[in-house]
Amino acid sequence: MCWGLDCNINSKNGIGVFLLFCIFFAGCKPVLDEPKYTSGDADFSVYVAIGNSYTAGCMDNALTLEGQLQCFPNVLANQFLLAGGGAFKQPLVNSGNGFGYDFGTQLSSGKWVLVNAINCANQNDIELKTLSVNSADKSWIGNQGPFNNMGVPGAKSFNLYSQLFGKGGVTGNPYFFRMASDTGASSGLSSTVLGDAAALDPTFFTMWIGSYDVLWYALAGGQPNGNSFYEITPVPQFDAAIDTIISELSSNGTKGLVANIPDVADLPFFNTIPYNGLILTKSQADSLNLLSPPGISFQEGANPYVVSNPGGSTIRQMKEGELLLLTIKRDSLLCFAKGTPQRPIESTKVLDTAEVLTIRNAIQAYNSKLRSVALTKGLAFADMNSFFKSFTKGFVFNGANYTTAYLKGGAFSLDGIHPNGRGYAIIANEFIRVINAKYGSNLPPVDVNASTGVMNP
Amino acid sequence: MKKVVFSCLFLFPLLLKAGGYQINTQGQKALSMGGSVTGLALDASVSYFNPAGLSALDSNYFNFGVSLLMPQSAFLGPYGGSEQMSSLLLTPTHIYGNYTFNEKIAFGLSINTPFVLGTKWDDNWSGRYVSQESRISTIFIQPTISYKINDKISFGAGPIIVTGNAKWRRALNVLNQDGSDGQLEMKGAGNGFGFNAGIFARLGKFSAGISYRSEVKLDLDNGEAVFSNIPSSLINNGTYVNEAKFKSSLTLPSVISLGIGRTISEKLIANLDVNYTGWSVYDSLSFDFPDHPEFNSSVARKLENSFAVRLGVQYQYSEKLQLRGGIGYDQSPVQDGYLLPEMPDADKVILSAGCTFKLKKGWSMEGTFAFQDLRERKEEKNRQYNINGTYKSYLYVLGLGLQYQF
What number is the ipTM of this complex? Predict the structure, then answer.
């Protein structure tokens, strides 16, 4: 009757006494024992995570301590501890606003938060506020390494073995500069992500890389304008990069997980503003029609936005399947007739049908490479492209609904690209499922609702 | 004497009956006999258990009792870390009286609380978006008349007037900037009507009873929902309100009981009961917000009708002391896929023991101890909330009663 308490029920004549004692004094609570966890065929003792901002744990447009502590590799590492996992060292920033970086302007800032505001239509509304950066978070801490989390925000596949990547600033990447064991101060060549990771001699790795090989292009609205940074990585280059990375990581038969790349259209950054979000009354439609060039017409209700074609000299109405970037100012759409013939949306904020197709083709090719590499090397494979597809439809965890929808979906951070704590936990649980299935481990998932979500003002 | 009373309370382990949120603590004698009394007429509580038994009572009784229910549940989610339900004390109470009008006719009155639900989890527990606290309590008032057709058979029936109230509290998955959840508390009350009827027969050393209690629908028409700790931005843009009215209804199931009693010796009687509870009327729990249809919700419950078997004995230890014991098995009406922390039900084994000690001038004191062991149960694919994990529950009941015989 009193399992779990110090009631000695072996003493026969004491059973009744103990029963009463337990009931009235100890409250004899039911106890459930946790299962024994095992790593199966995997060895989690030295886990290294390779990847981009998802691996690093970015959220709210910055690398924050909160994000690092909730990033999927750290969640995994905590679960690995239940089955032989070891310490997981991260290049942590200080608590506070974190380190955000605009690769275009090369300006840094802190994270974004939501605040109450009065909008241009004089309504109660919310807006994003950018907090200030703590410049200490930009400083080199590579001497504190090696780090188990080698996720570098913004990293493309081939960056991971580039000896310029740790130089920081325009040449390299300020996030890898922070954590690189050698920033190339003396030799002019920095250490590499892959080299620093290999120094740990990992027994298990996750590799989730490739998103930024297309994402920079998408974030530029498909208008690289001659800047190779914004070009899509050609498939042969991507394939070669993946081969290089994997052959290094799994050189000693090291086990691990390879994840593929979600469709950009499944990220709230690209699907929050609908192509036909221009809502007009009959009279608004009529007056716009009077002023519109041929081929552009409006009616009462929802209308496709008007956008500039690349070059900016011609305009057109959007078609279904084309995507708008979340960076279009809400006030412009709400009060200042943005998206009408008079104020078309810039082509750099639009992914047109051809651009979407270019992105999808690249992702498809990358994903087929990632799958075949995982298969060839006998690694666990997480199909995150399919997972994000089902994520857009949403799922339920202990009574809480989550989708990829911006703000309301509860799983993405304010930047619309990166998950929040709960989103990372959802991703980590999928990785855990895939790892368990591949290696016969029985790691438990985590409680998604224990992580941080969308914080409303 | 105190010593005797105290020790008799705990002499041997007996049991009690339940099933879903029907916790049958109605009457100390029944409670101490595992809930098994349909085939017997022991005191005024027959007006609840089998109205026909009123005519078979040997004298007039007044019975009053209160039971202290202490449910204990543990939950282990797939993410680990066993969580305990908060301590809770429920106190269903009962009052019964019978009056033998003449050889043929007897009256009875029953006031009790047959359907009680109480679960309370820590406000920040892992299932907080499903339930933090649920309470349902009902008061059944049943005036009853019994008619003795002949020496062997009697019949009884009466209306049931029910008043009930319910409260549900859970966290909302809307976070403030400090990370705290929104809160929703819903309260409602309503009344309903039903009836009960029964047949009681005595055949030598055997007695038998069949009783039926109808289902009762409680309409909660003026429910009040209070939203609290909601971020101001979501109040400002109309996503949430501070308060809203809701309508809901609860259907309490019908119960058919069949009991067979046997006088084994002058001192020993036994009874075997089978109950069939029509839980399937409880298909879903819906909340309709007439002014805010965006908050409407419906949770499928899909309860199934369930059986319970109970065996009880009563032993006349001495002129002053009756001892009772019982054992029972009660099937859970909750299907896999619909198991929720607000009713972490499972098949139950019931053990109970109790006694009646005669005081002076027709007064007696009654005491019962009952224990329910709910089988460990694992929910793997919860349909609506996807709240999966293992539940294990006990229910402790301490009952105290007072009887006056006249």
Answer: 0.92
